[in-house]
Amino acid sequence: MIRTNTLLFLLLMIIISAPGCVYAVRYDGPYKGKVMDADTKEPIEGVVILGVWTKEYPTPAGAVHKFYDAYETMTDKNGDFTVEGLGLKIMSNVIPMDVVIFKAGYEHLGYMSWLSLKEDILLSKRIKWEGEKAIIPLKKLMMEERKRQIDAFSIPGTAPKAKVILMLKEIDKDLMELGLEPFREKSWR
Fold this sequence. Notes:
Layout: H1 2-17, E1 23-28, E2 31-37, E3 48-57, E4 64-74, E5 80-83, E6 87-92, E7 98-102, E8 109-113, H2 116-119, H3 121-126, E9 128-130, E10 133-138, H4 143-152, H5 165-177
Parallel strand pairs: 2-10
Antiparallel strand pairs: 1-6, 2-5, 3-4, 3-7, 7-8, 9-10
C-alpha cells in the first residue's frame, strides 16, 4: 500500500510539473555578484540590485506572471552584493529571480532573468563568472546617452512601492541630474 501511494505521489508530481508552471524541488539563491566600471575596472559602490520573483500561472493563451516578492540591496565599497533568494521551494510556481541593476550615471541592466546573465549570447560575452559570482561591468554614460537610456528603463510595475524604495531613489537621482521630473512624484502603487 505504501509503495502504491509513493508511486502515485511521484506520478502526480511529474504530471503537475510537466506543463512548466511548477517546480517540483528548487533551491533559489543566493545570487552573488560584483559590479565594476567597464573602463577603469574599479568597483562601483551604491549600485542598486533589485531581485524580483513572480508566480507563473498557466492559461490557454500561455503562462501569465504575477508579482510574488522583491528584494533590493546596494553594492558595498568593493562593488560586491548578495541577494539571499527564497531558499528551498517545493512544488512551487515561483520562477527564478529576475534582476534589475541600476546606478545613476551608468548604463543599466534592465529587467531580465538572472539565468540570462549566463545564457544570453550577448551578455555572456560581457559578464564573467567566478564560480557562482557574476562580475558585471557597467559603462559610464555621457548626458545624451543617459537621456536615451531613461526612456528604455523599466522596473516591474506590479511591485509595491515599499519593495523598490532604493531603486526609486536612484532613479530620482538620475532624473534630477538630467533636469527631469522625479519619478516618485508620478503615480505608483
